[in-house]
Design goal:
Its cofactor is pyridoxal 5'-phosphate. It is a single chain. By secondary structure, the protein is of the alpha/beta class. The chain is built from 32 helices and 25 strands. Helix 21 packs across helix 22 and helix 26 crosses helix 29. The longest helix has 39 residues. Bound molecules: pyridoxal-5'-phosphate (PLP). Pyridoxal-5'-phosphate binds next to helix 21.
């Protein structure tokens, strides 16, 4: 009886024990290596007292819940939602995510935990899927260059607008938008046009182009009303007047309609949501943008291209403007960084699985239902507004609300356009039963079978698509489930994601994305909500969003939060627009200068320009901190025009700057506002709040600190958090327009962050932060003697990441950061962030989720690599031919003739082979990729199969 445990001793361990990697004994070893007695002591020493919260901060965040408890609470919220058949349209359609794609992509960590493919040799799988995405968009729109996704349709339209302005020759600042454009697209266009001095002219282009000059136009195809028009005449007229044309087009409709490229358009934009991506109450979904060949170099966002590897084999990588904001900063064409890769992969898989014939069948079926619906209504005496449409029927009735209510009672949500007009959008989900229910709601009697026998299609004859699309074998070879499953597995096996290795990417916070956090995102109650569903139908999701916004506000020390921005970059834009609006509201519209430290993330400068600000760069001192003297000088010379300072905290150098309060005070004293880039919040949560140490506004990256997986380059959520005086300037709340298409951005993935906070509680979050700081300092302590750690704060400690300086080593040995990054792939590891924020360095962020064994595996690999560098330095291996320069090594490269001065063993098994132990070797599928070759010979869609045999 005596050694019997009590119930209290047997409670579930907290979720934080699962989220945090190091076991207690491991943590002790890590702290010993750093020379700290405890996590708390480490925090005391690492964080400057000036930023620390002296007393616990009261929050509404409850005590940590277990996984089971959290899931029960989310289930309860989910049950408060009412899912209806979505016939609202407005750019969001019902769709079926094929279960094989849901399970093998959307719910598969091999796909969702991957990072943006900046290390292409270990990212060939997602690059191949993205190439299929680009090919799909290019083929369907008949415009040859398509990027690897944008954030949504509305922001894609805004990107197209600025692209046409850059690419065209017209001097005019006028951009004409057809009145039949999605309202949310118009809203975002207004937000984005205003600070850039673009004059938007909204006009009904069915009546002809308005008089006057213009640099471009946006047309919709079909329009927001569902009407399909022949755009050729307008396109020609715009061209005649020296402008360029973008067409917002429905990709599914383009399987049966003449594509924009064949109508003469210069660019096409839209969403790929209806290609199998759940509605999610607005997102995340992949937007697309495709352009004519000559605009390839103007394309914002990422573009996947074909190149070749060191052995001459075809290999994929990001082409041209990769990381362009980092290089071009305030001259960047766009601020987009994180995009929507995971959703682009889903959409591409949908096209691969259905193939051109399957997509055409789905389109025809969708159109057929719409045609029968229109005819049934007409026959029943209801006025149908447009004769030519693809999927949307607009009907006029005496009392639209009464009909909409009746439809809703039957489980169908329709669009209430006005007091007497309704929109009814068909989709892949539409059934005969839905049509019958709608007829009843309209008080019409009709037989769908009889209508089917007697009704013609409603597509204009002159706009039938004749050209082929998706002819590439990729869209024909994976049509059985077995074939698709194996294709997906083959692609995933080519990539290194978090399910195989730590991804120590500084500034990116590649931490655990727990299964319990991920599960709810595919629950139908969350996944199948239309963004414009009646609020009562989304009660549970709205409650979840408002709690999450409150928690985030409390954790950051701000008054209000909006989750609308779809990535950090969009949060930056929203925050800066809030600042600009604030100054304007006080009659200080001359305040337009934005101070940005030279070490800032490239998106900062690009966002400032998009917000209509002028960037003035502030230097950093020898320690990597903002140079206070330079800051004061810059403030002095721009005192009357100072709008804001953008500062990242902890700095992009991974250091807690001691003087951040002084910095904030100096800016405030001059009448400026302080923007604290919160991408590095993983070093602050639970310890310090930017809103409390001087920030007026911050964006957070839920896909970094708050566990939304990176998805191979998106989705992201970049909430913007503001102090009280800026709350009225949050996006879409009146003064400042929307920055995303959907009112709440990407609610589909918000349960992840909600679940994380709910299961960690404030104590767990604080523990995560301190553990992340311990992990970074452990790496710095162990690697410091092999690679200089570039910056450290007071007490010689770093924050949650550390920069390893290879510049001296490169100078002495000729071995570059590239060589080290690629060599890590031979060790089965993902490289750290390369050359950001300092060229020639590696920035390591282990996060709190990695256990000591994995961190040591990385550290040991880096030490092994340092030894290899020494052998190069000693002349044992030539600079041009050694295991580093030759990295990564494929299996094929070893079985051929071998004429290198190092052995095959060293090439492939740098750690040595351990007999009898399961072989953890990960074989990179390609060797080092030739970037320049790909940029010179730009190929951005699936190359013909023959290309692979040469
Ligand atoms: C990641 C990051 C951003 C941009 O966030 P996205 O979601 O990729 O747009 C901005 N600033 C810093 C410091 C970052 O690390």
């Amino acid at each position: 009886m005596t050694d019997r445990p009590t119930l209290a001793e047997l409670v579930d361990p907290p979720f934080a024990d699962r989220h945090v990697g190091p076991r207690p004994a491991e943590l002790e070893r890590m702290l010993a290596a750093i020379g700290a007695g405890s996590l708390e002591e480490l925090g005391e020493r690492a964080l400057p007292p000036s930023i620390r919260d002296s007393a616990p901060v009261p929050t509404s965040i409850p005590e940590a819940a277990s996984e089971t408890e959290m899931l029960a609470e989310l289930r309860e919220l989910a049950d408060r939602n009412t899912v209806t058949v979505p016939m609202i349209g407005l750019g969001y359609s019902g769709t079926v995510t094929p279960p094989v794609i849901r399970r093998h992509v959307l719910e598969n960590p091999a796909w969702y935990t991957a990072y943006t493919p900046y290390q292409p040799e270990i990212s060939q799988g997602r690059l191949e899927a993205l190439l299929a995405f680009q090919t799909m968009v290019a083929d369907l729109t008949a415009l040859p260059i398509a990027g690897a996704s944008l954030l949504d349709e509305a922001t894609a339209a805004a990107e197209a607008m600025t692209l046409l302005r850059r690419a065209g020759r017209a001097k005019s600042a006028r951009f004409v938008v057809d009145a039949d454009t999605l309202p949310q697209t118009l809203d975002v266009l207004r937000t984005r046009a205003e600070p850039l001095g673009i004059e938007l002219v909204v006009a009904d282009l069915a009546e002809g182009l308005p008089e006057g000059e213009l640099f471009g136009a946006l047309l919709s195809y079909p329009g927001a009303s569902g009407r399909v028009r022949d755009l050729r005449a307008v396109v020609e007229e715009v061209h005649t007047r020296g402008g360029l044309v973008a067409v917002a087009a429905d990709l599914l409709a383009l399987t049966v309609l003449t594509p924009p490229g064949e109508l003469g358009a210069d660019a096409a934009v839209g969403t790929t949501q209806r290609f199998g991506v759940p509605l999610g109450f607005g997102g995340p979904h992949a937007g697309y943008l495709s352009v004519r060949q000559e605009f390839a170099r103007q394309l914002p966002g990422r573009l996947v291209g074909v190149s070749r590897d060191a052995d001459g084999n075809p290999a994929l990588r990001l082409a041209l403007q990769t990381r362009e904001q980092h290089i071009r900063r305030e001259k960047a064409t766009s601020n987009i960084c994180t995009a929507q890769v995971l959703l682009a992969v889903v959409a591409a898989c949908y096209a691969v699985y259905h193939g051109p014939s399957g997509l055409t069948r789905i389109a025809r079926r969708t159109h057929r239902f719409a045609s029968l619906l229109a005819e049934g209504l007409r026959a029943g005496g209801v006025e149908v507004v447009h004769a030519d449409f693809f999927d949307t029927v607009v009907a006029r009735v005496p009392d639209a609300d009464a009909v909409a209510d009746a439809a809703h009672a039957a489980g169908i949500a329709v669009r209430r356009i006005s007091a007497d007009t309704l929109g009814l959008s068909c989709s892949e989900l539409t059934t005969v039963a839905h049509l019958e229910a709608l007829f009843t709601a309209f008080g019409v009697t009709a037989s769908v079978a009889e209508l089917d026998a007697a009704t013609d299609d409603a597509l204009p004859a002159a706009l039938r698509r004749e050209s082929e699309f998706l002819t590439h074998p990729t869209f024909h070879e994976h049509r059985s489930e077995t074939a698709l499953m194996r294709w997906l597995r083959r692609l995933a096996d080519a990539d290194l994601a978090l399910d195989r290795t730590m991804i120590p990417l500084g500034s990116c916070t590649m931490k655990l994305n727990a299964t319990a956090e991920m599960e709810p995102i595919t629950w139908p109650e969350f996944a199948d909500l239309h963004p414009f569903a009646p609020a009562a139908d989304a009660a549970g999701t709205l409650e979840m969003i408002s709690r999450l916004e409150r928690w985030l506000a409390e954790l950051t020390g701000y008054a209000a939060v909006s989750v609308q921005p779809n990535a950090g970059s969009q949060g930056e834009l929203a925050g800066l627009l809030a600042i600009a609006a604030y100054h304007r509201s006080r009659g200080e519209s001359e305040r337009t200068v934005c101070l940005i430290p030279s070490s800032a993330h490239g998106t900062n400068a690009a966002s400032a320009v998009m917000a209509g600000m002028r960037v003035v760069v502030v230097g950093t001192d020898a320690l990597g901190n903002v140079d206070l003297d330079d800051l004061r000088a810059k403030i002095d010379s721009h005192r009357d025009t100072l709008a804001a300072l953008m500062i990242t905290y902890p700095s992009t150098h991974g250091v807690y700057e001691t003087d951040v309060r002084l910095v904030c005070e100096a800016v405030h004293e001059a009448g400026g506002q302080v923007y604290v880039d919160g991408a590095n919040l993983n070093a602050l949560v639970g310890l310090s709040r930017p809103g409390a140490f001087g920030g007026d506004v911050s964006h957070l990256n839920l896909h970094k600190t708050f566990c939304i997986p990176h998805g191979g380059g998106g989705p992201g959520v970049g909430p913007v958090a503001v102090a009280e005086h800026l709350a009225e300037f949050l996006p879409g709340r009146g003064t400042v327009g929307a920055v995303s298409a959907a009112p709440h951005g990407s609610p589909g993935v918000l349960p992840i962050s909600w679940a994380y906070i709910r299961m960690m509680g404030v104590d767990g979050l604080r523990r995560a932060t301190l553990t992340a700081v311990a992990a970074a300092n452990y790496v710095a302590a162990r690697l410091g003697e092999h690679y200089p750690v570039l910056y450290a704060g007071a007490e010689g400690l770093v924050a949650h990441e550390c920069i390893l300086d290879l510049r001296g080593i490169t100078k002495e040995s000729g071995v570059t950061v590239d060589d080290v990054a690629k060599r890590l792939a031979d060790y089965g590891l993902h490289a750290p962030t390369m050359s950001f924020p300092v060229a020639g360095t590696l920035m390591v962020e282990p996060t709190e989720s990695e256990d000591l064994a994995e961190i040591d595996r990385f550290v040991d690999a880096m030490i092994g690599i340092r030894e290899e560098i020494r052998r190069v330095q000693a002349g044992e291996w030539p600079v041009e031919d050694n295991p580093l320069r030759g990295a990564p090594h494929t299996a094929a490269s070893l079985v051929d003739k071998w004429d290198h001065p190092y052995s095959r063993d060293i090439a492939a098994y740098p750690n040595g082979l351990t007999p009898g132990v399961h072989d953890r070797k990960v074989w990179p599928p390609v060797r080092r990729i030739d970037q320049a070759h790909g940029d010179r010979n730009l190929v951005c869609s699936c190359p013909p199969i023959e290309a692979y045999s040469s």
